[in-house]
Amino acid sequence: MRETLNMSTCRTLGLALAVGLLTAGAAAAGYEDCLVCHTGGVLGDPRMDVDEARYGASIHGLIGISCTDCHSALAGVTDFPHEPSGRPDCSMCHADASEAIERAAHRSGTPDAPNCWTCHGGHDVAPVSDEASRVAPLNQPSTCLACHADASLAGAHGMQVREPGEAFELSVHYQALKEGNPAAPTCTTCHGAHDNLSHNDPASPIARANVADTCGMCHGDVGEKFARGVHGTELAAGDPNVPTCTGCHAEHAIRAHDDPASPVFAANIARTCSHCHDDETLTAQYGLASARMRTFMGSFHGVANRFGQITVANCASCHGAHDILPSTNAHSRIHPSNLQATCGSCHPQAGANFATGKIHVQDTREDNFWAWLVKRLYLTMISGVIGMFAIFIAVDLWWRWRTGRSEGRSA
Ligand code: HEC
Ligand code: HEC
Ligand code: HEC
Ligand code: HEC
Ligand code: HEC
Ligand code: HEC
Ligand code: HEC
Ligand code: HEC
Ligand code: HEC
Ligand code: HEC
Ligand code: HEC
Predict the structure, then answer these.
(1) How far is the CA of 317 from the centre of ligand 3 (A)?
(2) Cβ-based neighbour number of residue 394 at 10 Å
(3) 38 lines ligand 1 (CB under 6 A)
(4) Ligand 7 pocket by C-beta < 6 Å: which residues?
(5) Given this model, what pLDDT does residue 371 score?
(6) Among the listed residues 79, 58, 199, 220, the one whose alpha carbon sits nearest the alpha carbon of residue 124
(7) Which residue has the higher pLDDT, 299 or 209?
(8) Residue 300's closest CA among 291, 315, 308, 312?
(9) Ligand nearest to the CA of 82
(10) CA of 165 to the centre of ligand 4 (A)
(11) What distance in angstroms lies between residue 166's CA and the mean position of ligand 9's atoms?
(12) What pLDDT shows up at residue 18?
C-alpha cells in the first residue's frame, strides 16, 4: 500500500496527522519505539541520537510522519536492535522530485552527486519558503557551491568552468538578491532545482541555443534586440563563433554595465569585442574587417578611452550593444545614411561631412594612401640607416683586426 501512496495522499495524510484526525497512537508508536534507543545517548554514539527539538520543528516533524516513512527498510520491523537500515527514501511521497533527479545530472549512482538530504537536510527539512531553508534563494549559492566551487570536481566531470565557482557571489544578481529583490535569479532560476542538465544537453536552459531565452525571461527587451542583431541572427542559425549573452557578460560574475570590473564597462568593451574582432583567423574565416581594436585604439576616441575617459565613443556607442548590424544594413547605426545621427548623439554640431571620414583607419594602401606611403618611407629609411651603420661597424672591426695582426707579426 505504501508504494501506491502519492504526493497528494501524503499531503492529505500529513495534514490529517497534523490535526490529529488519525489515532495518535498508531503514528506515535513508531516514533517512540525508535527513540527508546535513538535519543539520550543510549547507543553511546552522538550521531545515533535524533535531536527531538530539531526534528519536531522540521516540516516532517510538524506534520508528524513516521520514522519508517523515510527509513523505509525498517517499516514493520519488530525485532530490535534491527538490521542495517539502508539508505533513507524520500521518493515515496516526493515522486516528482525523485523522478526529475533521475533524468538529470545529479541522478543517484553518479559519484560525488548530492542526495536529497545534501540539499535539504535529513531531520531538519524546512519548507522552501522558509528563509532559513538551505534552498532559499540567498542560501542556494552556499548549498550548491559546497561542491561547485571545487575546480577538481568540475574537471573530473567535464563541466565547463571558465570562472571560479564563487563568481556568482560577485554578480549584480546576487547583490540584488541580498538587497531583497525577489526578481533576481539564483542558481535554480537558470539551472532548475532537480532537473539540472549539462550545457551539452540541447534541452538544458544553459545549452548555447537557449541561454538568450533563459536571460530573456527577465531581460525581454534586451533579448528581443539581441535576436534582431547580427550576433543573434547568426546564433539562431547555429553559428558556433558568435557570442550569446554570456560571451560578453560572463556566465556567473555578471556585473552592472557601470561597474568598472564589468567586461562591458565603457573602458573594457573594446577588449571584450576584440577577443573575436582582432582574431585574424576568425575575421579571415568570415571575411570581416579585421584589426578593429588596433584601429580603434589609434583613433581619438581610442586614445582618450585608454586614458580612462569613458564619455568618448566605444565600440558599443557606434555599433550598439545588442542590435549590432553590418554597415550594409539600412537599419545599422553605421549605415552611411545613419552616421550623422550616430555621431550626432555626442557631437550635436556634427554636419553631414563630420561623419564621412573613415573611423577604423588602417595603414593599408587602399584605406589611407598617405599614411601607408609615409610608413613605407619611414621603414625603408630606418632599415637603410641601421643597415649602413652595421656595415660600417663590420668594416671597422675587420680593419682593426687586420692591422692588429700585421702589427703583431712585424713586432
Ligand atoms: C533496541 C535499540 C534500537 C531500536 C529500538 C532502534 N534502533 Fe536503530 N539502531 C540501533 C543500533 C544498535 C544501531 C547501530 C548503531 C551503530 O552502528 O553505531 C542503529 C542504527 C540505526 C540507524 C543508522 C543506520 C544503520 O542502520 O546502521 C538508523 C537510521 C536507525 N537505527 C533507525 C531506527 C529507526 C527508524 C528505528 C525505529 C523503527 C530504530 N532505529 C529503532 C538500535 C536501535
Ligand atoms: C524525512 C525523512 C526522515 C525521517 C522522517 C526520519 N529520518 Fe532519520 N535520517 C534521514 C536522513 C536523510 C538521514 C541522513 C542519512 C545520511 O546522512 O546518510 C537520517 C539519519 C538518521 C540516523 C543517523 C544515521 C547516521 O548514519 O548518521 C538515525 C539514527 C536516524 N536517522 C533515526 C531516525 C529516527 C529515530 C527517526 C524518527 C524519530 C527518523 N530518523 C526520522 C531521514 C529521515
Ligand atoms: C542539488 C540540490 C537538490 C537536490 C539534490 C534535491 N533538491 Fe529538492 N529542491 C532544491 C531546491 C533548490 C529547491 C527549491 C526550488 C525553487 O526554489 O523553486 C527544491 C525544492 C524541493 C521541493 C519543494 C517542491 C518543489 O518541487 O519545488 C521538494 C518537495 C523537494 N525539493 C524534494 C526533494 C527530494 C525528495 C529530493 C531527492 C529525490 C530532492 N529534493 C533533491 C534542491 C535540491
Ligand atoms: C511520508 C511522506 C514523506 C516522506 C517520506 C518525505 N516527505 Fe517531504 N514532505 C511530505 C509532506 C506531506 C510535506 C508537506 C508538503 C506541503 O506542505 O506541500 C513535505 C514537505 C517537504 C519539503 C518542503 C516542500 C515545500 O513545498 O516547501 C521538502 C523540501 C521535503 N519534504 C523534502 C523531503 C526529503 C528530502 C525527504 C527524504 C529525506 C522527504 N521529504 C521525505 C511528506 C514526505
Ligand atoms: C554534493 C555535491 C553537489 C552539490 C551540493 C550540487 N552539485 Fe551539481 N553536480 C555535482 C556533480 C558531481 C555533477 C556532475 C554530474 C555528472 O557527471 O553528470 C553535477 C552537475 C551539475 C550540473 C550539470 C553540469 C554537467 O556538466 O553535468 C549542474 C547545472 C549543476 N550540477 C547544478 C547544481 C546546482 C544548481 C546545485 C544547487 C541547487 C548543485 N548543482 C549542487 C555535484 C553537486
Ligand atoms: C543568470 C543565470 C545563471 C545563474 C543565476 C547561475 N548560472 Fe550556472 N550557468 C549559467 C550559464 C549560462 C552557464 C554556461 C553554460 C556554458 O557556457 O557552457 C552556467 C554554467 C554552470 C555550470 C557548468 C555546467 C556545465 O554544463 O558545464 C555549473 C555547475 C553551474 N553553472 C552552477 C551554478 C551554481 C552553483 C549557481 C549558483 C551559485 C549558478 N550556476 C547560477 C547560468 C546561470
Ligand atoms: C556583443 C556583446 C554583448 C552581447 C552578446 C550581449 N550584451 Fe548585454 N551589453 C553589452 C554591452 C556593451 C552593454 C553596455 C551597454 C552600454 O554601455 O550602453 C550591455 C548591457 C546590458 C544590460 C544593461 C543595460 C541595458 O541595456 O539594459 C543588460 C541587462 C544586458 N546587457 C543583458 C544582456 C542579455 C540578456 C544578453 C543576451 C540576450 C546580452 N546582454 C548580450 C554587450 C553585450
Ligand atoms: C529571474 C530574472 C533574471 C534572469 C533569469 C536574469 N537576470 Fe539579469 N538581472 C535581473 C535583475 C532583477 C537585475 C537588476 C539588478 C539591479 O539592478 O538591482 C539584473 C541585472 C542584470 C545586469 C546589469 C544591468 C545593468 O544595469 O547594467 C546584467 C548585465 C544582466 N542582468 C544580465 C543577465 C544575463 C546575461 C542573464 C542570463 C545569463 C540574466 N541577466 C538573467 C534579473 C534576471
Ligand atoms: C565571441 C566572438 C564575438 C564577440 C565577443 C563579438 N563579435 Fe561581433 N561578430 C562575431 C562574428 C563571428 C561575426 C560574423 C557573423 C556573420 O557574419 O556570420 C560578427 C559580426 C559583427 C559585425 C558585423 C560585421 C559584418 O561585416 O557583417 C559587427 C559590426 C560586430 N560583429 C561588432 C561587434 C561588437 C561591437 C562587439 C562588442 C560589443 C562584438 N562584435 C563582439 C563574433 C564576435
Ligand atoms: C566612432 C564610432 C566607432 C567606434 C568607436 C567603433 N566603430 Fe566599428 N565602425 C564604425 C563605422 C562608421 C564603420 C563602417 C566604416 C568603416 O569601416 O570605417 C565601422 C566598421 C566596423 C566593422 C565592420 C562592419 C561592417 O559591416 O563593415 C566592425 C566589425 C567594427 N566596426 C567593429 C568595431 C569594434 C570591435 C570596435 C571597438 C574596438 C569599433 N568597431 C569601434 C564606427 C565605429
Ligand atoms: C558616445 C559619444 C560619442 C560618439 C557616439 C562619437 N563621439 Fe567623437 N568624441 C566624443 C568625445 C567625448 C570626444 C572628445 C571631445 C573633446 O574632448 O572635445 C570626441 C572626439 C572626437 C573627435 C576628435 C576631436 C573633436 O572633438 O572633434 C573626432 C574627429 C570625433 N570624435 C569623431 C566622431 C565621429 C566621426 C563619430 C561617429 C562615427 C563620433 N565621433 C561618435 C564622443 C563621441
Answers:
(1) 44
(2) 10
(3) yes
(4) 212, 215-216, 219, 222-223, 226, 231, 243, 245, 247-249, 257, 264, 269, 316, 321-322
(5) 66
(6) 58
(7) 209
(8) 312
(9) 1
(10) 29
(11) 30
(12) 37
CA separation for the pair 379, 374 (Å, rounded): 8
67: cell is 520514522
| Cis status, amide bond into 81, omega within 30 of 0 | yes
C-alpha cell at 106: 545529479
Instruction: Indicate which residue's Cα is closest to atom 2 of ligand 7.
Output: 248
Q: Whose C-alpha lies nearest to ligand 3, atom 6?
A: 116
Look at the block and give the residue holding cell 582618450: 304
Task: For residues 375 and 362, give the distance between their C-alpha atoms in angstroms, rounded to a whole number.
Answer: 12
Per-residue model confidence as pLDDT tens digits over 185-222: 999 999 999 999 999 999 999 999 999 999 999 999 99
Of 241, 246, 180, residue with least CA distance to 214 = 246
Q: Do residues 267 and 305 touch, judged by C-beta distance below 8 A?
A: yes
pLDDT value of position 78:
86
- The ligand placed nearest to the CA atom of residue 81 is 1
Q: 202: burial class by Cβ within 10 Å (0-12, 13-18, 19+)?
A: exposed
